[in-house]
Structure to design on (184 residues):
């Protein structure tokens, strides 16, 4: 009888510890999730989207998770989505799964979970360099076409009438901007 009681106590103690170890080891999350970049109160945040209606602030959720699990490994929250992508397989995947499992079963909903409608969605990744290759394409194409039309039909050169007596008494005229008069 003592062995049975001991086995039940051991099983109960192990199951609670197993959930903690499974969460740390990156066991599959209780529900599917998405990741995104959002803005709340003028501050950008990386969010874990649950059920397409709730957004978990990753930085706040990670801090709360580490406070509750002081013995667990510390994981630095990524500064942006680029860093999350770079570090996902090395140390963030397991922590994301643990946070999703924590929030999915939490009652009441933690204060770092927001309604999707209350946040502004931002582009998930912000590039370092933005090139605007096609921004003025239409104007550029029109300018090229106009320039080519101008070249296709060269302007005829206007010739000045020559003096009836070349070399004798030719008139001179001043060209604006020229330093000396040019004889014709």
């Amino acid at each position: 009888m003592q062995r049975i009681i001991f086995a039940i106590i051991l099983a109960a103690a192990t199951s609670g510890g197993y959930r903690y170890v499974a969460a740390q080891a990156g066991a599959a999350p209780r529900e599917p999730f998405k990741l995104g970049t959002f803005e709340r109160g003028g501050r950008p945040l990386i969010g874990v989207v649950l059920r397409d209606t709730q957004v978990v602030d990753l930085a706040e959720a990670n801090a709360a998770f580490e406070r509750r699990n002081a013995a667990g490994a510390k994981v630095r929250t990524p500064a942006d989505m680029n860093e999350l992508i770079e570090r996902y397989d090395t140390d963030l995947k397991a922590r994301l799964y643990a946070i999703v499992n924590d929030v999915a079963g939490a009652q009441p909903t933690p204060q770092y979970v927001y309604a999707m409608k209350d946040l502004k969605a931002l582009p998930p990744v912000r590039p370092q360099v933005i090139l605007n290759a096609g921004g003025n394409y239409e104007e550029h194409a029109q300018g090229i076409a106009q320039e080519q039309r101008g070249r296709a039909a060269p302007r005829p050169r206007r010739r000045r009438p020559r003096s009836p007596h070349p070399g004798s008494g030719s008139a001179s005229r001043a060209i604006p901007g020229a330093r000396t008069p040019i004889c014709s």
About this structure: The helical segments are 2-25, 58-68, 81-104, 137-152. The longest helix spans residues 2-25. The chain has a mean pLDDT of 76. The CA atoms of residues 52 and 116 lie 7 Å apart.
